[in-house]
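Chain and conformation:
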Amino acid sequence: MRILGCFLLAGFTIGLSAAQFPDPATDAPPSSVKGSATAVLAGGCFWGVEAVFDRLTGVSDVVSGFAGGSKYSAHYEIVSQGGTGHAESVKVTYDPSRISYGKLLKVFFSVVHDPTQLNRQGPDEGTQYRSSIFYANEDQKQVAVAYIQQLKTANIFKRPIVTTVVPLEGFYAAEPEHQHFLNRNRTLPYIVINDLPKLKHLQEQFPDLLKRR
């Protein structure tokens, strides 16, 4: 269940800048995918995660939804109770010739969430808010595993990274009212406290990756 509270995501209190995050040493080559590709990532409440990725150049669509559980339980009210196996996730459709899978992961780890928080993000608790990468193929798996190891070796975080890397068995879009939620609810206290700082961080740290609006 979404909790409205005066908390800041830990990712914005650890004092890390994008400059401290290395580019992925292993990345999927643009030629490995013809046309668009998709990435499914979970990093806490999907409202803010969707908003971050939606602002990246090369990204054509971002859908909030659920991954990790059955299609029959992929409904917001059910998932919010915990126990379905689902994680609130986003499906990012992107052009690999303009932004790589590895670059998406760099933003995922440095802006989207705190990958050292186990089964929670900020004020939201439960396995549905876990940090997870759902890979669609072996290339995505190899890039994700290698980048996590790279971050560990570089000692980017003071606490262990708890992000799981698991195969994507299905992604189910959330209800229409949860799509582009931030854009329609910018004054909601939860959004102001937890998600708008992510967008500010993105603008400050990755100006070269932003869409021209």
The longest helix spans residues 189-205. The radius of gyration is 16 Å.
